[in-house]
Hints:
Elements: E1 8-10, H1 12-25, H2 30-45, H3 56-64, E2 75-78, E3 83-92, H4 93-99, H5 101-111, E4 113-122, H6 128-136, E5 140-145, E6 151-152, E7 166-172, E8 175-182, H7 189-197, E9 207-208, E10 214-215, H8 218-222, E11 226-228, H9 232-248, E12 270-278, H10 288-301, H11 310-322, E13 324-326, H12 328-338
Parallel strand pairs: 3-4, 6-11
Antiparallel strand pairs: 1-13, 2-3, 4-12, 5-7, 5-12, 7-8, 9-10, 9-11
Helix pairs in contact: 1-2, 1-12
Bound molecules: NADPH dihydro-nicotinamide-adenine-dinucleotide phosphate (NDP).
Amino acid sequence: xxxxxxxxxxxxxxxxxxxxxxxxxxxxxxxxxxxxxxxxxxxxxxxxxxxxxxxxxxxxxxxxxxxxxxxxxxxxxxxxxxxxxxxxxxxxxxxxxxxxxxxxxxxxxxxxxxxxxxxxxxxxxxxxxxxxxxxxxxxxxxxxxxxxxxxxxxxxxxxxxxxxxxxxxxxxxxxxxxxxxxxxxxxxxxxxxxxxxxxxxxxxxxxxxxxxxxxxxxxxxxxxxxxxxxxxxxxxxxxxxxxxxxxxxxxxxxxxxxxxxxxxxxxxxxxxxxxxxxxxxxxxxxxxxxxxxxxxxxxxxxxxxxxxxxxxxxxxxxxxxxxxxxxxxxxxxxxxxxx
Length: 339
Ligand code: NDP
């Protein structure tokens, strides 16, 4: 997919159906195609374009090389009242999470919390779709994902961490859920790739070239270079925490252990994901969503220009009214891939 200016629009259902056909045409099961298509179309609709249709060639390449199993059937194991281990069996992370839905519901109802540890999984998307639905059900959700080693630890010269995103969602009284979703690198890798496509330089401090020198060239960062973590040594320690929660606690692999081997061109990281889902009423605070609302108002009163997630919600609303912007060139490529 290119970064060409959108010169047309498509509605969400049509885009989802087109993407579903692409996934099916490239060897996924029907259930996996449904889940990935809704996820990817949702990213495009919400303006999360670094994880929308731009990712389709990467999904297709990973499927075509056999790096990921598009028909994998996840194995769900509830190892304690609140701990759910899921082996994605080298499939995508989102169907693995969906397979655990019943176990999560049971754990939250009985224990007030569910810890979901997914391993042998490929997460190639934004994290907000994993957490926002829980907040819509009145629950808090926090998730960590590791990935491919392309981020150096603070002060280092060699990539060890993935871009290791974190997402958090909570209900807010009389409002949309509050959703924070961010990489622990200065920038998500998808954003660097979008800059490379547009040949636009990155801000100073974004990353290093392959010789370990500071670089603002997205091509140099992608060609054997690496990204920095956000926030100096403090961000680096948060990336460390994500790496352990997602890559080790789950029984999965660490970002630097990815090896594409024969699967040349594959792009999806084989990694892990940890989620925590919490029932806020167990904290003895029936008015939790009102407390969140109070804090959100105070942030705006204090001068914060907007809350996390608001840009996405505005984009979603716009797309619902007018359709999702798309270039004719990208639409043609999607239709070709759909067969
Ligand atoms: P951004 O820096 O664009 O945004 C991070 C968060 O900050 C979002 O919740 C965003 O809300 C919010 N935000 C942005 N600007 C403001 C502002 N001015 N005031 C208040 N809040 C603000 O995200 P990243 O580039 O770090 O990550 C992009 C995506 O990449 C994420 O969805 C992440 O999950 C995904 N990713 C996925 C990986 C994977 O392995 N699957 C790896 C790394 C990243 P809003 O969304 O409304 O702009």
